[in-house]
Amino acid sequence: MFRSTQLKTLAFAAAFACLSSVQAATTVIPLSSFDNYTIFEEYWAYLYPWGSDHNGSARMVGNSTNHAHIALASSTLSLIATPTSGAVPPTSTANPNPAIHYASGTVYAKEQITVTSTNSYTLQGEFSAPTAVGTWPAFWLTAVNSWPPETDIGEWKGTANTWFNTFNTSSIVQSTIVPWPTDLSFHSLQAILTAESNNEDVKIEFFMDGALKSTQYGEGFVGKPLWLIVDLQMEGSSGSPGPTGTTTYKIRDVEITRSGS
Ligand SMILES: *[C@@H]1O[C@H](CO)[C@@H](O)[C@H](O)[C@H]1NC(C)=O
Ligand SMILES: *[C@@H]1O[C@H](CO)[C@@H](O)[C@H](O)[C@H]1NC(C)=O
Ligand SMILES: *[C@@H]1O[C@H](CO)[C@@H](O)[C@H](O)[C@H]1NC(C)=O
Ligand SMILES: *[C@@H]1O[C@H](CO)[C@@H](O)[C@H](O)[C@H]1NC(C)=O
């Protein structure tokens, strides 16, 4: 009897905890955001927040009528890089102005992510990421107003690894490097961002396939708005030369939730 009452109490407590966490969670980006271009464009925008170029050799190309490099099918986003053979202006407009060798795809979440002392964010998705030399896909957060903050939830730099990184300054970085299969199979990544008790720093817990791989701390990240970017850059940090053929990075089941306010 004692045992069964205890179990009932536990079951009630668990159900209540579950219910209250469901009620407190706000969906920032729903699981369905890659179902079609209509819902996609509600939650995501094409290219980088600052334009088509960054510090690799790919120039991003795409909009609501050109899906050659940013394409949806079967609720999966494909970012597709192809060599350009000099068809576009020769250097990136972004520091350190590398030569452009590819046309590729990038998208970013329209809603910025701002961790405060009263909320917590969970970001997750499943990724089929190329790991060949010269391929540089990522799923990352970068500061809207200054740089850093930066936190990389997935970054592949041309080897059979993904990197979890948090930048306090441009040179003070914590990185955890985790083996990543090279067969283009999908694996899940998740990050949970919560303010520390000093209400200044943010704790970031990184998971791969449901297992905690790293806990990192971003100094002064509380209250700083961040862009969530999904990009297929090329060369840059991932070595060179990159592939002579087409490279595809696939992303599915992305979901962003916020608990608290
Ligand atoms: C697009 O996908 C969303 C989410 O699944 C769905 O609600 C909507 O009806 C779809 N719209 C079109 C035009 O297919
Ligand atoms: C989309 O991009 C194509 C070229 O890639 C361009 O011709 C077209 O005007 C663009 N459309 C919009 C809506 O920006
Ligand atoms: C970044 O700052 C946080 C908060 O002060 C600290 O816990 C963390 O160790 C720092 N990271 C590095 C790489 O020094
Ligand atoms: C490119 O810029 C990002 C920040 O946007 C930084 O994390 C990365 O180290 C830079 N890499 C290179 C090769 O410049």
UniProtKB/TrEMBL annotation:
Xref: InterPro entries: Beta-glucanase-like, ConA-like_dom_sf
GO molecular function term, any single one: hydrolase activity, hydrolyzing O-glycosyl compounds
GO terms for biological process, alphabetical: carbohydrate metabolic process
Protein name listed in UniProt: Acid phosphatase
Residue ranges occupied by any GH16 domain in the UniProt entry: 32-259
Signal peptide positions (record): 1-24
PROSITE patterns reported for this sequence: GH16_2
Native organism: Mycena chlorophos (Agaric fungus)
Keywords: Signal
